[in-house]
Queue: 2 jobs
Job 1
Amino acid sequence: MAHDGGIGPEVPGEGVGATNLFVHPAAAAVYLLDGRGSAQYMPEAVPLAAPTGKTFHVVVGSPASPEFRLWLKHEIGAVEATVLTVPSTQTRCQILDDKAVLILRMARPSAQPDDVGRQLMGIWIEKSRVILVTDVNVAELMGWTTHARLSHGPSSPGDLVARLGLRAADRLEPLLEQIGDDLDRIEEATIIGRARDFRLRLAALRRTMIGLRRLLWPQRDALNTLELEEMSYFSRKDRARLREASQRTARLGDELQALSERAVLVHEHILDQRSEQMNRAMLILAVVTTVFMPLTLITGMFGMNLHGIPFAENGAGFWVIAGFMVVVAVAEVAWFRRQKWF
């Protein structure tokens, strides 16, 4: 059915927020899921029939598209559309009667741990439609294509959201593994005494973990909130899948917390090594100062320009005093060693 700018004629008796599924949104991709695991891409030229039974539509659009944002505002309302499209929106879950707004954040594909930038995914959930507002390549994320009918797809809106939560965890898991490998290398360097070369790297790693922790825990809470809410079209299987996604996110959070605690211990080990090095240097300086204090006293006394200084007229006097000073120094060092001062 034709459309203009993504907003077609309203269904009689329906206004803003109505579920007008007969109009294909502009600048968006639409998939039809039959509720039995099959997903089919719907080209823009194909009229969209109203879902029946367990079938539902998945609409995917970019928040940067003016046409899609206009369609979204018409479909679900200005306030909800703003929540889904504002880039600074925090991870959360908001229930609106029998509908829900869910905000998830995903790590970028092939991201490095230092790249704490995240991609936003706004999700509008209702019985017969799920709207995904994101710049994430959802087809690649979910394994969908635009040219073939797929199998093993989500069987319900709740199943789809749970799979998105699991995919978000999938993208975060390699980052945690890389952080763990980096931390292992820093810990090994600390053991062999090369910690000073990795102090800045450890500080950057800890900042990265703080950023990831801010991502994981709110995401777990949002998925948990959606699983606990009484959505009429969520089955027990859907809630179990949502619980699985929440628990997996929580597991990654626990793993990240363990890595953070290891990083703190490595940092403390580095500080202990530096403190030990400084203490040893101070001990050596103290020993040298203590050894030379009586020698300085002796040289000061024999260096006075006064009559009556012993050995002043003796040609071998210098060597006698020098030998005496050597004996005193050796005796001091031997006494320090006996006391186990160094």
Note: The chain has two domains: 28-272, 283-338.
Job 2
Amino acid sequence: MARITLRQLLDHAAEHSYGVPAFNINNMEQGLAIMEAAQAVDAPVIMQASRGARSYAGDIMLSRMIDALVEMYPSIPICMHQDHGNNEATCLSAIQHGFTSVMMDGSLKEDAKTPADYDHNVAITRRVVDAAHWVGASVEGELGVLGSLESGAGEQEDGHGAEGQLSHDQLLTDPDQAEDFVAATRVDALAIAMGTSHGAYKFSRQPDGDILAMNIIEEIHRRLPNVHLVMHGSSSVPQALQDLFNASGGQMPQTWGVPVEEIVRGIKHGVRKVNIDTDCRLAMTAQFRKVGQGNLSEFDPRKFLKPAMDAMRDLCRERFEQFGTAGHASQIKVLPLAAMAKRYASGSLDPVIGGARVAAE
């Protein structure tokens, strides 16, 4: 098929009431695992790369890898997304390298660790939206600061995450402010702060409404039914993977992630994109440890990577099925960026003024 924009994919997801997992990638093995899972269940794909991933693999390598995956899996539409862009240059250089979607995270300043004020967030997000929409690419914004309601702190991932203590108000997206933010920026998707955080150590106990504020999602969706919502930090950190990791020589303290049933609840209330990274890392590294512990003389990287890819493939397939993504790839007729640019220019895709969805089938 082809690369698809986030807006077109999430419009289709909204029309058919499903969510799409967004898997972070750094390398070929992760990309192949995701695509094998997607092809097995006919699911569209969001792959995303952080600034850390782009530094690790290089923009040219990532871009060429996606070109190869598009060619290898022609029936699967792929959205390539910049995760947590920190300024205009990060976002626009991603588009130059073939990303069809970018996140401008103006909730933090350019250093990606200092909380920014609301006016800064609106101004920089709107500038990125104007530039991206001009060429047909999509933009995700963030309102509120990602972090733990238990500890009052954010978690760094690939150099991105708030430092220091955060107030309760900072850690929860204000529904009133969300309405104003979407109207002012015209973002295609809105990431919500509601108690999730990066990394494996999200909660010290099974989360409830005090530390995972799903009610925030429900209220924002009630007010902004045409806006696609995004859950960040939404790995579930499965107990079975923790157990395998530790049984194979790891030392991961007991932790809890975001329960799949809570993500499904969010999907019923407008969540269309669900960010997952830790689960994929854990699925792979648990296999690395298992292989290494089982055969101390093994030195062929492929003997580690193949079972790791299989484990990640199985996890991705499970998420496609749980989120309702399975069965939809073949329904989508991908529009080129130029066609999306014309629709943005007409104002028909404005989430507040028009709120029209892209015809995707």
Note: Strands lie at 20-24, 45-49, 78-85, 101-104, 138-143, 189-192, 228-231, 271-276.
